[in-house]
Amino acid sequence: MNRTKSILFKLAAGVAGLYVLWLGFKWTAMRVFVGPDEALVLTSKFGDPLPAGYVVVPLDKHYKGVHEEVFGPGRYFFDPVEYEWQIVKQVHVPAGDPDLWEFDENGNLKDPNTAPMVAVVSLKQGKALEHEAEVVPDGYKGVQEHVLTPATYKLNPALMTWTLVPAVVVPPGSVGVVTRLVGDIGTVSSATLTEISTATTQAAPSAAPSRLVTGPMQRGILKDVLQPGVYYLNPKMVKVSIVPVGFDQITLDHQTNKAVRFYSYDGYQVEADFTVVWGRDPADAPNIVANIGGVDKARTNVIEPAMKAACQNEGAKYSAKELIQGDTRSKFQDDLSDSLKQQVEARNVHVLLVLIRNIAVKDTAGKDQTMGLLATIQRANIEVERDLTYKQQTQTAVVKAELEQANKLVDVSREMVAAESKVKVANILADGQKQAAEIGARRELKVAAIDLEVSKLNAQRTQILGKAAADVERMKREAEAQGAKLLVDALGSPEAYNRYIFAKNFEPADVRLIFAGPGTFWTDLKTFEQVGASRLIQQQQPLAK
Questions:
Q1: Can you tell me the distance from the alpha carbon of 242 to that of 226, in angstroms, rounded to the nearest whole number?
Q2: pTM for the complete prediction?
Q3: Cα–Cα dist 282/177, whole Å
Q4: Which of 162, 160, 282, 183 has the alpha carbon at shortest distance from 238?
Q5: Cα angle, residue 138 at apex, residues 136 and 143 outer, rounded to 5°
Q6: Residue 202: its pLDDT value, please?
Q7: Is 382 exposed, middle or buried (0-12, 13-18, 19+ CB in 10 A)?
């Protein structure tokens, strides 16, 4: 029994030891940690060889070689006997920094590294097209049509290669002219920019070759333009030319050694400095790129030669004197502008204005005659101006006399208006005073009438109140007399009545009687009522005897 327990114990200890060894092996040799910006590419050491055309092992397949699946950041456990692995960096496609964008005069970024990027991907494995193509649809071997936009990707370097290139940035004030680099040549139905960016390279043959096309399947310059913004396009499929729109100016003068020279009608050599204001519409940009090449070439190959030709054609119609004088010089400038517009209109550029800044006239020997012509013109102009001055002075004197006469009439009218105003004011004042007096008299009359009515009412009130008071007093006396009569009748005699009244009003507080003998009655009564009572007692004493 003890031996069995010992065997079981040793067996359990062995199993535990093996488990500990397994854990140690797992957390040391098998453990793989993939960082936040990293990816893991796994390779099987054992298995069947890859089929023809494959460079990576497809998902859920057991072949020897690099696995197609790429593992992202985290912790993994792989058997080092069966697998090998490689830690690679994830691919980061930058989004650019608009705060750092600076554009040149042609609308291109000065530093392309600040632009958003796209990743052009080329697959090493996939189906093969029947014909050769620089870009292929998704799933085919070769450069892919779709690009990777700004983000972070886990890409397998055994399956694909990639290249970061700047995206297309069209700044405000410009448009992008799209040239499709793949497809057929010819003219087909129009297409939108979305169709252009997603269209495949397979298309039916077209006819009528043309540099300017609108179809989604043909190569050439598209009529649709890109408005200002950021576009993630495949540079293998399209090329975008930035064309500034709006108006610019070109100056042809002595400082840039581009002064225009031509001969006048009377044989003088004329050197002129010009400024031309010209521009492009967004709809003109594809034609400019297709037929001219760009804004710089439009400036040097179209505007400047057309300006020189227009000066030679129109300048030959005017004499040197007419080119200097103000009125005819202004007409020459208008004719020159119209001629230039007609010449460049077919090239899809527009001339807004032509300004003549300076004109120098030379004779056949090359001597400057500008000052002489100006002096002659100036003398003639002085005589003309002097004659105009005399005429103006005469006209001024006439107008001055008319003004003085008008001023006198104004003074007379002012006095008449003042006198009429005084009369009207006096009449208005008298009428006002009269109306005020009448109103005052009527008011005083009404007040007197009211006072009279008040006096009458007061007399009536006094009479009524006097009569009422007399009636009250009379009635009071009558009532008292009647009451006394009734009381006398009740008591039986006037003497009884008097004693009743005396007794009623007799209310002494202290009475002292002193007997001093017959016929004498003393008292210390202090009030009149007390004295009266003592007198009444004295009168009644004889009756008591």
A1: 9
A2: 0.58
A3: 9
A4: 183
A5: 40
A6: 41
A7: exposed
Contact present, 260 and 274 (Cβ < 8 Å) = yes
Which pLDDT score, from 0 to 100, does residue 7 have?
Answer: 79
- Classify burial at 194, counting beta carbons within 10 Å of its beta carbon; exposed 0-12, middle 13-18, buried 19 or more: exposed
Strand partners, 220: 180
pLDDT-flagged residues of the chain (< 50): 187-209, 369, 373-377, 380, 515, 520-526, 528, 541, 543-545
Is 142 in contact with 196 (CB distance < 8 Å)? Answer: no
Q: Enumerate residues 6+ apart whose C-beta is below 8 A from 43.
A: 65, 66, 67, 83, 84, 85, 86
Cβ neighbours of residue 444 under 8 Å, at least 6 residues apart?
A: none
Distance of alpha carbon 385 from alpha carbon 157, whole angstroms = 89
Q: Give the integer Cα–Cα distance in Å for 209 and 391.
A: 73
Listed in sequence order, the residues at least 6 apart from 223 whose beta carbon sits closer than 8 Å to its beta carbon are 190, 212, 213, 214, 286
What pairs with residue 84 in β-bridges?
43
Cα 74 → chain centroid: 48
> Rounded to whole angstroms, how far apart are CA atoms 481 and 464?
26
| Distance between start and end Cα atoms, the chain | 168
